[in-house]
Fold this protein.
Amino acid sequence: MELKDIVHISGKPGLYKIVAHGKTNLVVESIDASKTRTSVSITQRFSVLEDISMFTTDDDIKLREVLVKVFDLITAGTALPSSKGSDADLKSFFENALPNYDQDRVHLSDIKRLIQWYSLLQNDLDFDALRQVKDDDEATGTEVKIEHHETKAAIKKPQPAIKIDNKAKNSINKTAINRKTV
């Protein structure tokens, strides 16, 4: 599973894997034990995990890099705190994983969400592949900046069911005027 195939849907808990997509919707499957499938309209706000970045004091850092840092911290022996743990525990864990995060713009709710997402993805993600993507980006020397866009459906003006040309309008108006005078 790759981060480009996983979305977070605003207003819905958890993460979802994209199963199929159409012109106006996505078919997604929850990444939990239930594996429920649902359809998501493009009018709903959702974010692809590959496009998400976190604020740091230097430059923004991609979520894949943050997940790799959390993975490295956990494999080194640090326990993953519960997302419902104390605020101090969550902040200290996150400071160990990403010491230069912007404390003004990264809120506690963001840290909780990151820990929830990591616990959902830890068994399904290939962290070596995520690390390889980072290494490939650094080796090429190119920096790709992907901006987060929220999808919104285009509002279309309703089209009339019947089109009437000008000659037909004039004859209809004349008929209506003639009926009123009689």
